[in-house]
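Reviewers asked in the last cycle whether our approach scales beyond single polypeptides. To address this, we selected a multi-component target totalling 972 residues and predicted its structure end to end. The input consisted of the following lines:
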Amino acid sequence: MTDLTHLDATGAAHMVDVSAKTDTDRQAIASGRIAMSGDAAAAIAAGTMKKGDVLAVARVAGIMAAKKTSDLIPLCHPLPITKVSIDLVPDATGVTATATVRTRGQTGVEMEALTAVSVALLTIYDMGKAVDKAMTIGSIRLLEKTGGKSGDWRRDGESGPA
Amino acid sequence: MTDLTHLDATGAAHMVDVSAKTDTDRQAIASGRIAMSGDAAAAIAAGTMKKGDVLAVARVAGIMAAKKTSDLIPLCHPLPITKVSIDLVPDATGVTATATVRTRGQTGVEMEALTAVSVALLTIYDMGKAVDKAMTIGSIRLLEKTGGKSGDWRRDGESGPA
Amino acid sequence: MTDLTHLDATGAAHMVDVSAKTDTDRQAIASGRIAMSGDAAAAIAAGTMKKGDVLAVARVAGIMAAKKTSDLIPLCHPLPITKVSIDLVPDATGVTATATVRTRGQTGVEMEALTAVSVALLTIYDMGKAVDKAMTIGSIRLLEKTGGKSGDWRRDGESGPA
Amino acid sequence: MTDLTHLDATGAAHMVDVSAKTDTDRQAIASGRIAMSGDAAAAIAAGTMKKGDVLAVARVAGIMAAKKTSDLIPLCHPLPITKVSIDLVPDATGVTATATVRTRGQTGVEMEALTAVSVALLTIYDMGKAVDKAMTIGSIRLLEKTGGKSGDWRRDGESGPA
Amino acid sequence: MTDLTHLDATGAAHMVDVSAKTDTDRQAIASGRIAMSGDAAAAIAAGTMKKGDVLAVARVAGIMAAKKTSDLIPLCHPLPITKVSIDLVPDATGVTATATVRTRGQTGVEMEALTAVSVALLTIYDMGKAVDKAMTIGSIRLLEKTGGKSGDWRRDGESGPA
Amino acid sequence: MTDLTHLDATGAAHMVDVSAKTDTDRQAIASGRIAMSGDAAAAIAAGTMKKGDVLAVARVAGIMAAKKTSDLIPLCHPLPITKVSIDLVPDATGVTATATVRTRGQTGVEMEALTAVSVALLTIYDMGKAVDKAMTIGSIRLLEKTGGKSGDWRRDGESGPA
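The resulting structure, written as structure tokens, was:
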């Protein structure tokens, strides 16, 4: 059976030693989606159309969250992020978010990409909640990671909802 | 058509004025789930059985994230949280998280509960990602909120995945 | 001669005791300006015209900074901010920022308004610095404060640049 | 016409990719000034003379703010700062602040130096505001930057106030 | 046998519900000491004598840490602190720190006072470590707390070192 | 007489310039102890035995605090930590904490190890304070540091309490 690397032999949590790892260029892409009522989606669309800040606020929140990842996820290593971009695509029933994060470091940036997506979607929830409290965030997952000793990884096909 | 209260008439984002609202007791409950391979679920279960810290780490991460909500979500008001608890239930294909947050304040704690759930699940992803990178986080949603002028709200039935 | 309330009798810094003060509604308005070359101002205008995020990013940065004020200014009291709005007006030679902050608390929100203006303008510098490194930020000042025992205060006329 | 590098082709904000840049030694120097009444300047001077902490508090605030720059400025890259010093010179009508910041990294430290100056001056405002609410912060600007591919830059002569 | 209130019946950590508690004025005083070589103590004294910032830096660090307590201690409630002062007394073999913290809130400020003392002393260690790496921090303890339903508490006599 | 490197010639605090230092692998180990009543120690032991989160919460707090060290200690350089582990050993009269921190950087991680120990012990205080407010934290000290130009350092024998 597989073990969790974040626990030592006694089960105690620790931040895994990556001292011996080489600095390499690493990238991770993650995505997620917030599903909402037609009314909420229309409010988002209206906010966007009249040059409203709605997607910009979510994008900025996601970018800033990527930089806070090691402050949020207890066993995550701090990393000097070299790029973050967040793509937000609204449609008639929600918004899909995709985050791309890069670093040149000793560990990967999967958590940074997943955190950026999560916080961008939570921010959309916050802005839309007066219209629709039942919005649901899901399908938060890694799409691919490249760089690092463990090699590249890409999700097979499109995974279904959680 | 409904409008987004977080944008002013010109579409500019602002933190909504809640100065005139009364301090009342408020509570929000949110939940979410991380779906994973049997191997990853078994690793979580093993980590839990031998008194490992795996669920404790996720729980602490979620509680601390609730306190950082207004630092993460740009237009969210800071609130003096008076209670946070996070329930994590592992099973053969994943872990379900439920967060309960309370305050006595001028706005609700929906975002705090949703943020706590999201970060607890991201933390489980972080600890399990060496075993299974394809884990998916979803069904993050509000279950109920009570208190405040807009009254109580409860989700109708169990909503499907996002 | 007047004394600094933030130093005790021996000159040691302390966070002034406001325990005995009453919670009252308080508001502060501050403004500032970044002066830039015509090229930089044109780039800002172009970014704004094509629905670019440029002013939204600065606005979000200012709002979030208002919430971090007591974390930045050592002797500043933490406060539950109830409203922040930031008005950014670009013109041919720069951008003028005005921030309005409210709370119901034991001390005023002058520092929050001034910090919001400062960080919004620094963010514009950051976005424009590839075009013009010589941009200058100035005229950061309080316009008015209302509420609290010391009463209301309004700046006389328009003060010149610092 | 020039473009803003912090916006992509659609106008969306992103953290620019610096992955391909080389780590080099970089330095930035910025300055600014707070102008105040004679009474406030005298209070600062008195606080300084009797070994009071007044300038030390502002200096520490500026140094700590330099370390928080990427947390405050949304699209700013996190950097391992290797030196910060802040020079504060009080006179009869105010205080002039100059910050010097160094790093060995992939981007420059202009924003760190400007942020350090801004927060040091805001801290002086905070300590003096009981004496003089009309104090004005200005002339915040980059004096020079060295290192990095874009080469060295120095401000021509002394620029006037913003 | 006594139980830990921070664990629920299953042993899971939670932030205890204080919603039903009344806001009352509360104060806590804590102290601690860093013991050092004569050389290090002399360096501190010299830094202090020539108006150096050494004690001011530690004092500011302690005050700012008090404001971060709920961000550092996982199950600690966030509180609107209304006063912090830190007294630092250097002598021939070290420095003694005493912190006084006040709030008007639903829980006490013991943790804020203890955290302020700890971080002030760690800051002195940081500044003196080039002279003496063997410095030891100890005797960190609560001296008294007042306010709140559980009533006042004062330490009996002087407790010995930890 | 020795001088404090963190003060310049005029006594002003600054973050020491480490730009010229080489990145090397560095490690620091620190320890400390919280002494408590038999009742409190029994409550900790009971919380641990029934798989309670008590030590896990303290461990996570310490690990996260190590990552916040440069945000807490004003003149401390930010560092990309590559490993943190915290060992907590409860006995009949208290808990002993030992932290090991590694980095590959330009300065050492002594402060990170000492901060991790301090915050882990403060967290135990927080969880046990309903049982015993008189608990005392002490013996916080560096055990060894390795790496860096100044060479390795190990504490001679066991130092007594502070």
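The first helix of chain B runs from residue 38 to 49. We regard this as preliminary and will revisit it once experimental data from Aim 1 are available.
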